[in-house]
């Protein structure tokens, strides 16, 4: 996710849009801070009067206490209401310095705290930034400015253009750092805004993540159960009826003489029924192979390797049956990988290994082909990664030009 903080560290920072976005954020802060200062200046008027009395030494203790209480009551009572538009406004402005959205801005005290930052720290920091940029600008143009009279920087006074040249050169170098200074100021301001206004606690986010993980696990289990139901219904229903139809057509063909006009039609229907039965068998196998259901992943992987047109050596050390969705994910990842190997790799041999390691099912598919597999050039490898991610796993790919290629998939498989 692109952010200003990451962009600052890029060598291409100065030729990107980030300096301009930082400038826009800094400039837009000025009217926002001014708009916040007006109502809060009125609410804090008792405190301002109290401060004046304290500075002049005319503060009566009772009056000072009353002024302090009045200011506190006004700020605590009306301050959150005055600061209510701030989170929504800052949500839009923060898009200038990053794509991470600002959420959960319902706390009135956080709104009040951020408003206090906007009327205290922000004017100080932005004034210092303005003075710094102004000083760099004056130094940069000092050779021209001295024509209208001496240029004074307090401890230093420039009278001639010759004296101004070193300051102009130094300012020219410093000017290259102005975009970084703007970006750092904007990034720091954005970080404070997110820290104060983003009220979603770590515990709440963690609980939400746990719930999302559980929901995904339930969806995976439900999806796998539905796959098995469809496979069972097709196997026990449609396939058995199609087998019966094929047998009846075969018997009818035998009962008809070859010269009968119906013999040709029955023969064609019998052939089509057999072809349809083969297609249905392949469809059922694609939903969930019966071999995987009955005998487990190790046997199913060896069967897959036997169907591959190039020699594939299988090493599967799986002493127990794994959860259904884990076995199905691993099976189809290997099936797709072997299909890609046969079509695209130019390999003469391949390997498949499967083992349990520290609560993970680790499956590796390798070949001695020409390599150069790139997920960006097609959806096949991306689909494998997505399939692994659904099962809360991950896929790793090593495929340098010239080969070999190795696909590694790690899937969590709890013991209970």
From TrEMBL:
It catalyses: ATP + protein L-histidine = ADP + protein N-phospho-L-histidine. Its EC number is 2.7.13.3. The chain crosses the membrane at residues 20-50, 62-83, 112-145, 165-184. GO terms for molecular function: ATP binding; phosphorelay sensor kinase activity; protein dimerization activity. It holds the Pfam family HisKA_3. Keywords: ATP-binding, Kinase, Membrane, Nucleotide-binding, Phosphoprotein, Transferase, Transmembrane, Transmembrane helix, Two-component regulatory system. Residues 226-291 form the Signal transduction histidine kinase subgroup 3 dimerisation and phosphoacceptor domain. The keyword RNA-binding does not apply. It comes from the Bacteria. The keyword S-adenosyl-L-methionine does not apply. One of its GO terms (cellular component) is membrane. This is histidine kinase. It comes from Actinoplanes aureus. The lineage of its organism: Bacteria, Bacillati, Actinomycetota, Actinomycetes, Micromonosporales.
């Amino acid at each position: 996710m692109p952010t200003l903080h990451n962009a600052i560290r890029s060598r291409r920072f100065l030729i990107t849009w980030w300096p301009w976005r930082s400038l826009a954020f800094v400039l837009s802060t000025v009217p926002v801070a001014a708009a916040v200062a007006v109502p809060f200046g009125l609410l804090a008027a008792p405190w301002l009067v109290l401060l004046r009395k304290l500075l002049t030494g005319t503060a009566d203790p009772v009056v000072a206490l009353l002024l302090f209480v009045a200011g506190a009551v006004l700020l605590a009572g009306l301050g959150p209401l005055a600061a209510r538009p701030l989170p929504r406004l800052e949500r839009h402005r923060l898009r200038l310095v990053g794509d991470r959205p600002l959420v959960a801005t319902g706390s009135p005290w956080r709104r009040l705290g951020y408003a206090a930052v906007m009327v205290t720290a922000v004017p100080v920091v932005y004034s210092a930034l303005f003075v710094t940029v102004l000083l760099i600008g004056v130094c940069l143009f000092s050779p021209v400015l001295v024509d209208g009279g001496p240029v004074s920087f307090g401890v230093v006074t420039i009278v001639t253009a010759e004296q101004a040249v070193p300051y102009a050169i130094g300012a020219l170098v410093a000017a290259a750092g102005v975009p970084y200074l703007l970006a750092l100021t904007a990034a720091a301001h954005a970080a404070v805004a997110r820290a104060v206004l983003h009220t979603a606690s770590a515990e709440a986010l963690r609980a939400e993540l746990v719930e999302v993980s559980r929901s995904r696990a339930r969806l995976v289990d439900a999806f796998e159960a539905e796959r098995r139901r469809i496979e069972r219904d097709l196997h026990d229903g449609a396939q058995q009826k199609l087998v019966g139809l094929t047998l009846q057509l075969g018997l009818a063909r035998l009962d008809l003489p070859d010269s009968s006009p119906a013999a040709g039609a029955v023969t064609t229907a019998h052939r089509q029924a057999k072809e349809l039965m083969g297609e249905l068998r392949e469809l059922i196998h694609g939903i969930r192979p019966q071999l995987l259901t009955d005998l487990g992943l190790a046997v199913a992987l060896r069967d897959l390797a036997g169907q591959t047109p190039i020699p594939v050596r299988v090493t599967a050390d799986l002493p127990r049956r794994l959860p259904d969705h884990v076995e199905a994910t691993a099976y189809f990842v290997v099936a797709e990988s072997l299909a890609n190997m046969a079509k695209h790799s130019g390999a003469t041999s391949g390997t498949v290994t499967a083992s349990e390691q520290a609560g993970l099912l680790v499956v590796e598919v390798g070949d001695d082909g020409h390599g150069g597999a790139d997920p960006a050039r097609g959806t096949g490898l991306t689909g494998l990664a997505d399939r692994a991610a659904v099962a809360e796993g991950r896929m790793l790919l090593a495929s340098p030009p010239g080969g070999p290629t190795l696909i590694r998939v790690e899937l969590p498989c709890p013991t209970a």
